[in-house]
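Fill-in record for ABC transporter permease.
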Amino acid sequence: MLRRIAQLLIKEFLQLKRDKSARFRLLVPPMIQMLLFGYAATFEVFNVSTAMLDQDHTPESRALVAAFAHSSRFELTTTASNRAQAEQAVASSSAQVGIVVPPGFAALLRKGQSAPLQVLLDGTNSNTALIALGYVNDIANTFGQSMALELAQRTGHALARPLVHVDVAQRYWYNPNLNSRWFFVPGVIGTLTLVTIVNLTAFAIVREREVGTLEQLLVTPIRPAEFILGKTLPFFLIGLVEVGLVTGLGMYWFHIPFVGNPLLLFGATCLYLISILSIGLFISTICTTQQQAFAANFFVLNPMFILSGFSFPISSMPHFLQWLTLLDPLRYYLVIIRGTFLKGVGLDVLWPQLAALAAIGVVLLTVSVLRFRKALD
């Protein structure tokens, strides 16, 4: 049995060696996608196009405008002369944010009172609008504090009877600089592995059936169980190699810290690979052509990506979708890989995710093998 499986493994790797395009697809696209996701996927917002309207025309209002202009978060693309121009800039999408400094802004500040500032936001991209509004509040609050301090130093009255306030001391654990790349890159490792391994498994077996070599293998002494093991084991080993490559790229190119246990991540990766290999094997049992396999992969992989929590919080989804995410192995692997990379958590914390991956892997593999054996018969 072992010799027959070994011969089938040799056949798979020889076929991979002869197929230059397959070797290219295994190595180059995952590296390129890791680099693209690492640089492009981010929650941070820079150079937000901004329309500025200063109706006060005082040194204080010009100082506030300069604070926005010198910030890397905003780019002043439009200097409006009236409110209609500022509103038109936002309505025409030439500016994502419109900031209006009303008349009397400086006069209120000089009296020690709160001064209004109007912000117009393009809500078509709600995420960017909310983040940009947060940046506006930060700049405005910093400016207001500096003006209050200057007023107190100049008059001395504000310091004589200070207002009661709360100082918030912020401390960010595991990601001190709130670098969103530290969040995305570990997730990309699981996502790229999912897409690559499911595609490889489904297409490889369907290709055997489509070109007629599957029937030739069935007339050999090899048994169905040996055939399934011989077809999936190479992709399991390829998955381990790919995880190692993209993990190394994330650690040494993007400088993502890894503070966890490598053996724990290795064991979790093995369980994860078994689960997604089973998905590819299941797809191969319901498809007879590579075109059908492509359509089935698209139908399966996109929902798995969306429901995994890679970029959309699971807690924000409707309850029925939150229950549906429990069937997604990528959901559990993302918790494990982010926890081992950034937090260094151990088996005592991650055992529920490992148990879920093991259960999903056993169920999916059993169903897929039974269906595949029936298809072979």
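KEY FINDING: The first helix runs from residue 2 to 18.
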